[in-house]
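chain below, 88 aa
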Amino acid sequence: MLDSIRSLRNLILIIVFNEELSSESENYLDLSLQRCLLIEENIVRIKSFPYYTRFQLITLIKNLQNDVQMSFDMYTHFYEEYYGLKSD
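prediction:
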């Protein structure tokens, strides 16, 4: 999971530095990047502390899943904005 999040972070950075983006697109990518960094930190924290109970781990993993979903949502908003797919 950590490798996947790092890959996503790197992809976002490549887009940020290689594409001309509107300010709204940049904002969505920035939010997505912030989420990725938060997720990375949480994964590292979880891995470094071996004394979680099963219940705690389930809760932490659910929180990570929510963070990943929120990051993906921001990336989706970026994609829609960048390619003019918004229907408003």
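The helical segments are 2-18, 23-48, 54-82. The two ends are 34 Å apart (CA to CA).
thats it, cya
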